[in-house]
Design goal:
The structure is a single chain. This protein is of the alpha+beta class and 735 residues long. Helix content is 35%, strand content 23%. Strands 2, 3, 4, 5, 8, 17 and 18 form a 7-stranded mixed beta sheet that branches. Strands 11-10-9-22-21-20 form a 6-stranded antiparallel beta sheet, with helices on both faces. The radius of gyration is 38 Å and the shape is elongated.
Length: 735
């Protein structure tokens, strides 16, 4: 009985074991079938799905946009990565007790580094973000438990901690702060990278350098940034993002090609000089707008080009490309074009005389008037040279009528042959007729020739010649008759090496004969020494040029004046040509007193900076009686200059970086004291400083500077000693 029972139990065990083996075999076969089905029958489908979850394809790698440089390699525009700083309070690794432990020291560190918020405010932002995340998680859980499909708007994943975007150096420092020095999944810290276009010299040559869209991929909007956008922007690369062990990594498929750099002809110092000189005169005359261009005679390189438009009372900023877009009648600067044509064709000689009487000349029902005709002065006969010196319209009109009244086409054709109407591709993007000269022919049906066009054209009316063309023409006179194209772009570069270099383009190898050229040069010199340009005359070096005054055509009549001066210096050995134009100044318009004064300031500034090899010595009897006015600013630079001038001074301390300078009447010297207002975290006192020191000091503290005027700082919009907020804008007014 026991044996039977034992055998039955054995049979049952074997039977059960058999069923287990059968079941496992079935599962094994099913697994094998599924493997084959997944791998071969449905393999392509699952592989594609897996890639979607672990690989993100065709992601663009943004190339670095090329830099724009001045002629000496200083940066005019560059790209800088900036980072928006956020915290994801739903990050799985954030622990409440750790956050609460470090929130106070973290807030204090943030307030010290980024003082636009205090420590209490930073702490409130962080704690509010944490509380919000708990509420949102609780709401998500409730919806899930109740089976609701209602979506919860999650805001705690993107809580901005620091208001301004920060640079990479600040970001690296931020990641050493308490709590933020952990792995990102534990701190929740993440950043959004942006690329910003930075201009180290601020608004300097702003219109010429140009700008780009906020969306970096859209490229340039104006100036060189737009003109050479395809050169600067480069070619994007390609990458995939792949998930490996729970982390996303980038796999580069195609490297991006960075944009080329552009080296310009602009000189930072000359540009700064031109902008300040023009700005000061525009503010003084309450003018509508103005332009100043400086060109190197032998090369055609534009060293400065400033275009200022009035944006509010007494405030001017770079706006329209006035050097190219002033499509108006040039006025008396055009008389030299007429003079050159008449001299070259043998119509007149410089000493030929014309009767001008009281400055009124009637011609076919219209009256040509000289600028001083109201004085009633009877000049009787005046030579061609004297007429140019005094800028007499009657002389220009009678001169051209004498030679071309019966054949006006010959006169106009000569102007065209000079190259003054040649279509030129400029370095800045322009619209419509901008950057072209419009000088009509007698048979021009689109712009009909009237019976009085010829005499009025002789002194700069019934034509449209933008400043850049007048500059080019006068530079041709300075350059021994060779007229060359003014240009801004010197080279395209890659990693500091020149890829493509641009050479001087000759528009006309010889404007006229050497004899005519010599006569024109002598007359231009006389304009400054004996004529309407006397205010431009310098005691340091000779200047040659011509004044211009023209009424501005508007709404079928004339409204306001356009005054200009174009010339070159030094007149005996020309180095630079300069054009200055001012539109609608208030007061009595004068090409010599308004733009001429700007020209003189620019010329003398360039001359003393670049062309004078040794200091100009003051008379002996004045050396000890005159104490120079010293601006506040850099201690090192101030002491260096005073020592070079052999000027006595007393310093109140050692190792000073920023100083205040005072006149010491007892010692007939200068006293230098430490500028105690320059302290970390406080707005410094820049009153009494020059623009360069003031801007450097303020921008070094993280402030954005808005500059008005020239000279010394007399007022600052944010009080010295107040709490410094990085990124804030401060306006400084100079006298």
């Amino acid at each position: 009985m026991a044996k039977k029972s034992e055998g039955a139990m054995k049979n049952v065990a074997v039977s059960r074991y058999g069923w287990i083996v059968f079941l496992l075999s079935f599962i094994f076969i099913a697994v094998i079938v599924c493997i084959f089905k997944i791998k071969y029958a449905e393999g392509s489908k699952w592989r594609e799905l897996g890639k979607l979850e672990t690989v993100k394809k065709d992601r663009e790698i943004r190339p670095n946009r090329g830099n724009i440089y001045a002629d000496d390699g200083r940066l005019l525009a560059t790209s800088e990565p900036l980072y928006g700083v956020y915290v994801d309070f739903m990050a799985e690794g954030i622990k409440k007790d750790t956050l609460m432990k470090y929130v106070t020291p973290l807030s204090q560190a943030l307030a010290k580094k980024f003082p636009d918020r205090n420590a209490a405010q930073y702490k409130r932002v962080i704690l509010d973000g944490w509380d919000l995340s708990r509420k949102e998680l609780a709401e998500i859980k409730r919806n899930k438990e109740s089976g609701s499909n209602k979506k919860v708007k999650v805001r705690s994943r993107y809580v901005r901690i620091i208001r301004p975007d920060i640079n990479y150096i600040d970001l690296k420092e931020l990641m050493t702060f308490p709590f933020f020095n952990q792995r990102s999944n534990r701190s929740g810290l993440f950043t959004e990278e942006k690329t910003m276009r930075m201009k180290p010299f601020g608004r300097l040559a702003g219109r010429t350098v140009g700008s780009i869209y906020k969306d970096f991929n859209e490229g340039g909007t104006s100036g060189l940034e737009l003109k050479y956008d395809s050169i600067l922007k480069g070619v994007p690369g390609l990458k995939t993002r792949q998930r490996v062990q729970g982390r996303w990594i980038d796999i580069v498929l195609e490297e991006p090609t960075d944009g080329l750099d552009i080296k310009t002809t602009l000189n930072v110092d000359v540009q700064d000089l031109a902008e300040k000189a023009l700005y000061s005169k525009l503010a003084e005359t309450k003018a509508e707008s103005g332009v100043a261009i400086v060109m190197e005679v032998s090369t055609g390189e534009i060293k400065a080009i400033t275009n200022l438009d009035r944006v509010s009372e007494g405030v001017y900023a770079e706006g329209n490309p006035n050097a190219f877009s002033y499509m108006s009648e040039p006025g008396s600067t055009f008389k030299i074009v007429s003079l050159m044509v008449a001299l070259e064709d043998g119509v007149v000689r410089p000493d030929d005389q014309f009767y001008v009487g009281n400055g009124l000349f009637e011609y076919k029902g219209r009256t040509v008037r000289d600028h001083d005709w109201r004085k009633g002065q009877d000049r009787s006969y005046v030579s061609v040279a004297q007429g140019m010196h005094s800028s007499l319209n009657t002389v220009a009109a009678k001169m051209i009528l004498k030679g071309y009244e019966d054949n006006p086409r010959k006169y106009v054709q000569h102007i065209h042959d000079m190259g003054l109407t040649k279509k030129i591709d400029w370095d800045v993007p322009l619209k419509g007729k901008e950057g072209t000269s419009v000088i009509r022919f007698p048979d021009d049906k689109g712009n009909p020739w009237s019976k009085t066009t010829l005499p009025w054209m002789s002194f700069g009316y019934e034509t449209q010649v933008p400043p850049i063309y007048m500059l080019m023409f006068y530079n041709g006179i300075a350059n021994n008759g060779k007229m060359i194209k003014p240009y801004l772009t010197k080279a395209f570069m890659k990693d500091g090496k020149i890829e493509e270099e641009f050479e001087t383009e000759i528009i006309n190898p010889m404007l006229c004969s050497e004899k005519t050229l010599s006569e024109v040069q002598e007359i231009l010199r006389g304009v400054v020494t004996d004529g309407t340009g006397k205010a431009v005359n310098s005691e340091l070096f000779p200047i040659a040029g011509k004044t211009g005054t023209a009424m501005i055509a508007a709404r079928g009549g004339y409204e306001g004046y356009y005054v200009s001066f174009c010339g070159y210096f030094p007149a005996d050995k020309p180095q630079y040509t300069c054009f200055v134009g001012i539109r609608r100044p208030q007061g009595s318009p004068s090409g010599g007193l308004m733009p001429g004064q700007v020209f003189k300031n620019i010329a003398e500034g360039i001359y003393t900076r670049n062309l004078v090899s040794t200091p100009i010595k003051a008379p002996k009897d004045t050396v000890n009686s005159l104490i120079p006015v010293v601006k506040n600013g850099s201690a090192k630079n101030t002491e260096l200059v005073l020592k070079k001038l052999d000027q006595s001074f007393v310093s109140s301390g050692k190792n000073m970086e920023w100083i205040k300078a005072k006149t010491d009447s007892l010692t007939n010297g200068i006293r230098i004291e430490n500028n105690s207002s320059v302290k970390q975290g406080l707005v410094p006192n820049v009153i009494g400083m020059g623009a360069r020191d003031a801007i450097y000091l303020l921008e070094n503290e993280g402030l954005k500077v808005n500059l008005i005027g020239a000279g010394k700082v007399r007022k600052q919009s944010i009080q010295a000693g107040s709490q410094l907020i990085r990124g804030a804008t401060i306006t400084i007014e100079l006298n």
